[in-house]
Amino acid sequence: MSVAGALTRIPVGGERPYQVLVGRDLLAAVPELLPDAGRVAVLYAPPLAGVAAQLVELLAAAGRRPLPLEVPDAEAGKSLAVAADCWERLGSAGFTRGDAVLGLGGGAVTDLAGFVAACWLRGVRWAAVPSSVLGMVDAAVGGKTGINTGAGKNLVGAFHPPAGVLADLSLLADLPPVELAAGLAEVVKCGFIADPTILDLIEQDPAAATDPAGGVLRELVERAVRVKAEVVSGDLREAGRREILNYGHTLAHAIERVEDYRWRHGHAVAVGLVYAAELARLAGRLDPATADRHRAILTALDLPVTYAADAWPRLLPVMRVDKKARGDTLRFVVLDGLARPGLLAGPAEDLLRDAYRAVGR
Ligand SMILES: NC(=O)c1ccc[n+]([C@@H]2O[C@H](COP(=O)([O-])OP(=O)(O)OC[C@H]3O[C@@H](n4cnc5c(N)ncnc54)[C@H](O)[C@@H]3O)[C@@H](O)[C@H]2O)c1
Ligand SMILES: O=C(O)C(=O)C[C@@H](O)[C@H](O)[C@H](O)COP(=O)(O)O
Ligand SMILES: [Zn+2]
């Protein structure tokens, strides 16, 4: 592969194995993500228009036939109307099963791109060039694709793994700091469920953790990708162990829905992590020091750890449509200790509300 500088390849296993490439100045390798594709639809949102233009040029120079498709930014793009518009545009361009989709952007665009690819002709190849920390460590990896609906976050989607993921850390130079920190909420999640070295690295130097040019952030990105890759390699369809990646997400997705998807996912996850830790502590499963460590580390990254105290009656019904629920039984990922994730099924409503007091402001 013709790329400059150190390149890390992280394998993701399963029926259709692929690699996550992590490094700097990697864009020249993009055509190799989709070998033999004829047309390539490049989905991107306006903030990435300049990078999209570069990719279109690179793809054309490599003999592909790129079709740039601009979509609305952030969660506004993760809608059925936007997906339907993409399908119409693929149809007008005559996209066949020999063609492919490329998602360039944050997690919202890569979720949409994967979903568009999963449904077009019942599934065509796609690849991802994530441009946010969150996209690199989480959204672009693992094959969960989807959109939001009025009923809830990501309730419509498909498991459709990418053919490859290219995480070019150079793109993070333009990522607003607030977005960079939001992505670290998912990195912290990986630290608590599987790789405590992540937590040590952030605690030692939170400023280094948020420096897009630094080596600490690169190590955090690679460690989090390895956690995700290991989990999804063995359980693509979330039949069991993959649920641990949903740590903090039961409350997080409810907050996002109640906010009409105007809250950042990473911010909602930060609050959700503190909530899940408190739930485990109150249930007698997690020691107070590890529970408190959640709030401390997220606060050190300037992430929110509270949400409106009076929102509880609106949040609980939304939590009931969480994908981990079974019938009337809510199921939460909790910790039984550091890097010891487990499940809490059917907690009493009093316990759920009492835990919310820890985040209610
Ligand atoms: N599929 C999964 O497994 C998975 C995992 C985690 C999160 N997600 C989803 O990912 C989404 C959140 O992703 P996100 O945090 O990246 O948010 P996002 O995609 O909304 O991006 C945040 C903002 O940063 C901008 N941006 C991204 N990269 C940039 C860059 N390099 N330079 C300048 N601006 C840039 C975007 O255009 C957007 O305005 C949510 O929809 C969430 O549900 C999916
Ligand atoms: O990959 C997974 O599995 C995750 O749960 C990762 C989460 O960070 C991510 O937000 C995911 O989109 C949530 O999945 P959902 O099935 O609860 O929508
Ligand atoms: Zn998430």
Name the helicity range: 40-55%
CATH secondary-structure class of the largest domain? Mainly Alpha
State the separation between the terminal residues, measured CA to CA: 51 Å
Mean pLDDT: 97
Q: Which hetero compounds are present in the coordinates? A: nicotinamide-adenine-dinucleotide, the ligand O=C(O)C(=O)C[C@@H](O)[C@H](O)[C@H](O)COP(=O)(O)O, zinc ion
CATH fold-level assignment of the largest domain: Dehydroquinate synthase-like, alpha domain
Structural class: alpha/beta
Any idea what the radius of gyration is? 20 Å
Number of helices: 13
Strand numbers in spatial order across the main sheet: 4-3-5-6
Q: Determine the CATH superfamily of the largest domain.
A: Dehydroquinate synthase-like - alpha domain
In total, the number of strands is: 11
> Do you know the CATH architecture of the largest domain?
Up-down Bundle
Number of domains: 2
Main sheet, how many strands, which sense, barrel?
A: 4 strands, parallel
The helix/strand series, from N terminus to C terminus, equals EEEHEHEHEHEEEHHHHHHHHEEH
> Unreliable stretches, pLDDT < 50, 5 or more residues?
none
Beta fraction of the residues?
A: 15-25%
Question: What shape does the CA trace take?
Answer: globular
Cofactor: Co(2+); Zn(2+); NAD(+)
Binding site for NAD(+): 73-78, 107-111, 144, 153
Pathway: Metabolic intermediate biosynthesis; chorismate biosynthesis; chorismate from D-erythrose 4-phosphate and phosphoenolpyruvate: step 2/7
Family: Belongs to the sugar phosphate cyclases superfamily. Dehydroquinate synthase family.
